[in-house]
Write a structure and sequence with these properties.
Blueprint (H helix, E strand, L loop, with lengths): L1 H7 L19 E8 L1 E3 L12 E2 L5 E5 L6 E8 L18 E2 L12 E3 L1 H14 L4 E6 L6 H14 L5 E6 L9 H25 L4 E7 L2 H14 L8 E7 L5 H13 L3 E8 L4 H10 L18 E4 L12 H4 L1 H13 L9 E6 L2 E6 L2
Parallel strand pairs: 1-9, 8-9, 8-10, 10-11, 11-12, 12-13, 13-15
Antiparallel strand pairs: 1-5, 2-4, 3-6, 5-7, 14-15
Helix pairs in contact: 4-5, 5-6
Length: 364
């Protein structure tokens, strides 16, 4: 019938109407932020005709002089065309805008007092029937808004139904600030510990996970070591602790972690490493000592610590950002956060042994 219709040039009547599907609407993603960055106060902003100053506080790269912690929420909109694992192109939030809401940064950050912050967090979890929170501690070279975007990306790509909390420490946000960032992450370590203690107290009975990347793992390891020194409770106070591409000396890591593991602070602590991590290879040469996340030069095999080598699956930039760009790694983290699945029951992990200790290799 179709062939004859084509031959005679006749039209074929559609028996069912074609329904046009609406394009998916972009979704807003809420990030709770905690920061010890100093709030920047730019000179008087002069906007063009028809524009208005963007709302909300701004946080720069300076440390808060009085070590005060700032709290708030920040709703951002990631492009709905963004593919899974695609990093969000970052452009600084404009000082002036023609509309009350920016397409990406929406209404800007909404500052909260500490009590308001924890109250809002509890309310949000109840409204979403959520019982879990993850805290993301970013790495080197992040501006404040950029760290917010990457936290939102993690929440979206992990399909995370709980609340996402960002701890934004005072990174310089540029390539030349590595030395300053190294000092700042040490300065921020007691603030990370203080926040974790307050968060755990505010959310009794709920799982609190930690996702730390690169230089941010130094603060998390230091904070956990401090918490371990106060004595364990017998039951894990944290859910999953994920240390991805840690930029911390391997021997220092081996020195600190046994006490953390022995205190049973977390359900499970997972270290993700790569043999091709160019950023950590450079850091190792700079510091003289190999980094814990550089599987090519270090193997911090510690009883009770799960180590996952992602070399065979990783094609991220500098082989360092696999926590954000690698769907295999994110799938593995997803199973950890959702069900506390041990390595032997997770997809794609192959057991490698070194004496009595085990290393897991993630294979595509």
């Amino acid at each position: 019938m179709a062939a004859s219709a084509l031959a005679c040039g006749c039209a074929i009547r559609q028996t069912r109407p074609i329904v046009a599907l609406a394009a998916p609407a972009p979704e807003d993603t809420e990030v709770f932020y905690v920061t010890d960055r100093a709030e920047s106060a730019p000179a008087e902003i002069v906007c063009k005709a028809g524009e208005m100053p963007a709302r909300g506080p701004r946080f720069g790269s300076d440390r808060q002089p009085d070590e005060r912690i700032s709290y708030g929420t920040y709703t951002v909109r990631l492009p709905f065309t963004r593919r899974f694992g695609e990093l969000v192109p970052y452009k600084p939030r404009p000082l002036c805008s023609r509309t009350p809401e920016d397409p990406v940064f929406r209404s800007g950050p909404a500052a909260l007092q500490e009590e308001q912050f924890f109250s809002a967090l509890v309310s949000r979890l109840k409204a979403a029937s959520g019982t879990e929170v993850f805290v993301f501690v970013h790495g080197y070279k992040y501006a404040f808004e950029e760290s917010v975007l990457w936290t939102a990306q993690l929440k979206q790509d992990l399909n995370y139904r709980g609340a996402a909390v960002l701890f934004a420490w005072p990174s310089q946000g540029n390539s030349t600030g590595y030395a300053a960032d190294g000092d700042s992450i040490e300065w921020s370590t007691p603030h990370v510990r203080q926040f974790l203690e307050h968060l755990l107290a505010a959310l009794p009975g709920r799982r609190v996970h930690i996702l730390a990347h690169s230089l941010g793992t130094r603060a998390v390891v230091g904070a956990l070591q401090d918490l371990a020194s106060t004595g364990g409770t017998g039951e894990p106070r944290l859910g999953q602790v994920v240390l991805a591409a840690p930029d911390i000396a391997e021997d220092l890591f081996r020195q600190k972690m046994p006490a953390v593991i022995g205190a049973r602070l977390a359900e499970r602590i997972t270290l993700y490493v790569s043999r091709n991590d160019k950023a950590l290879r450079f850091s190792g040469r700079l510091h003289v000592y190999a980094r814990a996340g550089d599987a090519g030069n270090a193997q911090p095999l510690i009883p009770g610590l799960d180590i996952v080598d992602v070399t065979l699956t990783d094609h991220s930039r500098y082989y360092h950002n696999y926590l954000f760009e690698n769907r295999w790694v994110q799938q593995d983290v997803f199973l950890l956060l959702r069900d506390n699945v041990p390595p032997e029951r997770r997809f794609g992990l192959v057991r490698l042994t070194n004496g009595s200790l085990t290393l897991w290799q993630l294979r595509p």
